[in-house]
Amino acid sequence: MMAGFGHGTRRYPRSRGRTRSGSGPDRATLGIIGLVCAVAGFFTLGILLGPAAIVCGYLSMGRRWAGSGSWPALTAVVLGAVDTLLAVLWLAGSTGPGNGLF
Questions:
Q1: Are 74 and 57 in contact (CB under 8 A)?
Q2: What is the pLDDT of residues 12-22, one digit of tens each?
Q3: Pick from 24, 26, 32, 25: which is nearest to 71 by CA?
Q4: Cα dihedral sign for 66, 71, 73, 78?
Q5: In angstroms, rounded to a whole number, what is the distance separating the alpha carbons of residues 24 and 36?
Q6: Whole-prediction pTM value?
Q7: How far is 52 from 77, CA to CA, in rounded Å?
Q8: How many helices (H) and strands (E) does the chain have?
Q9: How many Cβ atoms from other residues are within 10 Å of residue 56's Cβ?
Q10: Which one-letter DSSP state was computed for residue 50?
Q11: How far apart are CA 94 and CA 48, in angstroms?
């Protein structure tokens, strides 16, 4: 009965689930950051920027794989995985037998 006197359910319409927290970047920004890290990882520091791109892309997709619909996030994950794989292969190839002794 008190709903008509200003104590209704619509008093705070934005209180739960409608607004995101003001701290941290949103999903679109994380996808773009991941994409930039993935592309930069091909040229320098792939062993660091590859996993960073994977993490940013994964967080941008909302920590789920199905139905993301965000192409920068998916591209960041795929290119980050390629960056990381190439960096690991390059590091493994540089420590071959002999190691530059002869």
A1: yes
A2: 555 555 555 55
A3: 32
A4: positive
A5: 18
A6: 0.68
A7: 9
A8: 3, 0
A9: 26
A10: H
A11: 17
